Amino acid sequence: MALPTLTAAKVYPADLVRVPRSPFGLCLLGLLLLPGTARTQEPVGERLQEGSAAIQAARFRIHREPPAGFRVLLPPRFEEGAVYGVRTTPLLAGRQWEHEVRERVQQRRSLQVRSRLLLTLGLEAQPVERRRRRERLADIPRPEDLVEEERLPPPEQRGFRAVSQYADLGLDLSARLEIRFDELRNARCAAGDFNDPASGCRGGFPAPSFNEEFRVRAGGIVGDRVHINVDFDSEREFSANNNINVYYQGLEDEILRRVEIGNVTFRAPASRFITAAVPTNSFGVQAEAQLGAFEFSGIVAQQKGSSIRTREFTIGESTTPPVQVEGRDLDFEQARFFFVVRPQAFPGYPAVDILNIARDTLPAALQIAQVRVYRLRAQGGQVVGNANLGGIDAVATRDDSPQRVGPFTWELLVEGQDYYLDPSATWFALGSRLGSDDFLAVSYITVAGDTVGTFPSVNGTGDALQLIHEPRTGPNLPTYFHEMRNVYRVAGQGVDRLTLALALRVGTSETPLDQQGTYLARLGLALSTDLSTLDESNRVFPRERDPSNGVPLRDLYVVFPHLEPFADSARLEVGERNDSLYRTPSYLLRTQGPAPRFSFQFSYEATGAGSRSSLNLGTIQVRAGSERLYLGDRLLVRGRDYEIDYGLGEVSFLNPDALFSGTARLRAQFEENQLFDEAPTRARPWASSRRLGSLAD
Predict the structure, then answer these.
(1) Which of 174, 290, 284, 309 is CA-nearest to residue 619?
(2) 397-419 per-position pLDDT tens digit
(3) Torsion of CA 250, 256, 258, 263, to 10 degrees
(4) Each residue of 243-255: pLDDT tens digit?
(5) 482: helix, coil or strand?
(6) In the chain, at which end, N or C, are there fewer CB atoms within 10 A of the end residue's CB?
(7) 288: which residues sit within 8 A by CB, 6+ positions away?
(8) pTM of the full predicted structure?
């Protein structure tokens, strides 16, 4: 008996149905929701009731071709010829299974390595299983996410598919480009300023300035062997903190075990005979290899921006720390030391030793009996009132140039309170630096009775002064040479002068090019009996024999016996001189001045009370993890014996009473990021070892 067709299943549009990937889920969906027609048969002439035996015993048949308007989306493994397809063989199924297992093992290995790299970079890595579950669910769209116009899934993006098959990289990049235009207008221009493009007297806009800043952090693996670790920021204050490292990691049975390019660290074998180290901030190539029982490692790198320091401290009731201060030939003490008279008038100029000027040996015009110093303070926009009120109304001029300042109200400075006057009365030093926009003038009376200026002490009419300093001027004006450039600051109060030492170098050498003596002796700063020791009693100002011990100056200064020491052709060769230092205005020295050639390294012990619970290493920007603190032969452990602030170089002892009993000597070895480097250093160390079995290496 023929039976008509009966639809007994609820039908959904095919675009809203995704067949599960498992065979069990496929069968369940086929019984319940698979698009198609579920057909059964009923006897002719009989109307089947809902729940009848005929309905319950109906045989379901799934059509391979769904009705029009519906479509079945099958996973790749259910397609024809796949593992669960209608046309497959055990061989094809086995190959498919092997391919999937290898792919899953490789994915898991890459995810684990990537997680470790992200943790190294300080990034949080998602658990592997959670990320896998999210990736599987992300492939199944929800019905409410599909719209009428997007029934079919969009085509797969294949732009980086080839790269993703061989690399697993994480990248964080940000960049910024700044273009700046600025205009400087100078309302007080002298005749010589019009030839200076930076003076602001010409007007108009200069060429634009470009500033590129970028930051990149990357980490990952390429091809299972090449590892990438990059942390670079162009805005970092110390470039030595940037890290670029790419290395190849070989297998255990390969000859070439590891090759690193970028920031490398040479790992020397542990030995009590090795007392030095190679700084970690070395940029180059390092390789490790193994050939039988022999292991080799070597490095070819250039080191710049950091150096290893070793310092010793005496710790008792207080701490006496050694201090090291570095400087350059450009860092002379500005706006403090000035000549009263024209320095070109001194016999033998510029070979003039200001600490040993005898008045009786000078020409009559330079033998000064009395001096008065005047200052004209600049009026800032935020200053209320006139800072020079109560002063002396006068005009400051020069007899050897057209310079003229005034009439203005000048402040009369007090000797011993505002400045120190040398016994020769030919030069003075201010207690505090002169402002960048301030003027200086003098008036004096010679031993012969001649007067320069009107020598006013109270306000009057028609007073005149001699101008000795005008801000932002160059060597084309005579006032430029009144400021000294041969005085360098050492330190402030609390210095044990007997421990003061100075090393003067060009690059890393203290020996001149002719290999005769030292630069310290060549430039007149060393003892006659020891060419490497600073003559502290004669070349460090103020000296014990100076009037009032140099009051009001409170700092110590090294004074060269020559006004232009680094341009002295009688003592230095052409490759050693830095003549431009004495021809560049102070306000342009940092931006348009010459490159530094000589470097200073002052070392001394600071005096005064201090707590033994803390210790200052005397530097900033200590490289993290590079410190080694030895109390006798014992190596202190960070976190148990002490804590350290790497940015300030401050060490805090957790239990100082248990560590220090009486007076102890502490040796600190650390690596610091230097503020500047004259020349990078190159390193080519290598190490080898041979395994001798289970007894020794």
Answers:
(1) 309
(2) 999 999 999 889 999 999 999 99
(3) -140
(4) 788 888 887 778 8
(5) helix
(6) N
(7) 256, 257, 258, 259, 295, 296, 297
(8) 0.52
